Amino acid sequence: DAGVIQSPRHEVTEMGQEVTLRCKPISGHDYLFWYRQTMMRGLELLIYFNNNVPIDDSGMPEDRFSAKMPNASFSTLKIQPSEPRDSAVYFCASSFSDTEAFFGQGTRLTVV
Amino acid sequence: GIQVEQSPPDLILQEGANSTLRCNFSDSVNNLQWFHQNPWGQLINLFYIPSGTKQNGRLSATTVATERYSLLYISSSQTTDSGVYFCAVGSGQAGTALIFGKGTTLSVSS
Hints:
The structure holds 2 protein chains of 2 kinds.
Chain A: E1 5-7, E2 10-13, E3 19-24, E4 31-38, E5 42-50, E6 53-56, E7 65-71, E8 74-79, E9 88-95, E10 101-103, E11 107-111
Parallel strand pairs in A: 2-11
Antiparallel strand pairs in A: 1-3, 3-8, 4-5, 4-9, 5-6, 7-8, 9-10, 9-11
Chain B: E1 4-7, E2 10-14, E3 19-25, E4 31-37, E5 43-48, E6 52-56, E7 59-64, E8 69-74, E9 83-90, E10 99-100, E11 104-109
Parallel strand pairs in B: 2-11
Antiparallel strand pairs in B: 1-3, 3-8, 4-5, 4-9, 6-7, 7-8, 9-10, 9-11
C-alpha cells in the first residue's frame, strides 16, 4: 500500500482565503484522524472519524475549521477564512480497527 | 485528559553511544506508540507497544502499563537516528486518537 497520502505537500495562501487540505487513508482502514503540529502546541488531535462518521471534533480550534469524510477513501480539512495563526503542519493518519496509527507526510500551511 | 511527559527533552550523543528515552503517562492506556520524526518532518512508526517488550534491530521498547511508563532504547546510535522521538498514547473508545508528548530531540554526531 502507498500509505496515507496527503495533498498538497505545501500551501501558501493569503489571509482570508479558503484552504482545503486533502487526505487519502490506507485502504481498509476504518479510523481517520487529523492532527496539527506547531512549535508552541506540539502535535494535537483536531478531529477523528470512524467509518466515515465524525466521532470527536473537540480539538477543532474554531468554527473556521471544518472536516468531512464523504467516503472511506477521502477526507478534507477546510479552513475558511484562513488566518496567519493557522500556519502549521497538518497531518492525517489512519488506523484499522483502532490499532496502530500511520501518518501521512503532512501538509505545511503558511498563511501570509 | 491524559498527560504525557517525555524525558530528557534534548539528548546529544556521539555515534556509537547507547541511550534510553522515557515516557510517563498519567492514566491507563490501551495504545502506546513511539515515532521518529526525521529532519524532513515525516512521522515514522517505530513501535506499537501498549504493553510488553519489542525489538527491531538497534531499537527496542518496553511498556510497563501498570506503572504507566514506557522506555525506548537506542543502541549503537548513528547520525541517521537524529531527529525528534515522540511517545503517543490513547485510551477509551478510540485508542488511536493519540495524545502526544512534547518529544525528545536527539542529535547524534560523528
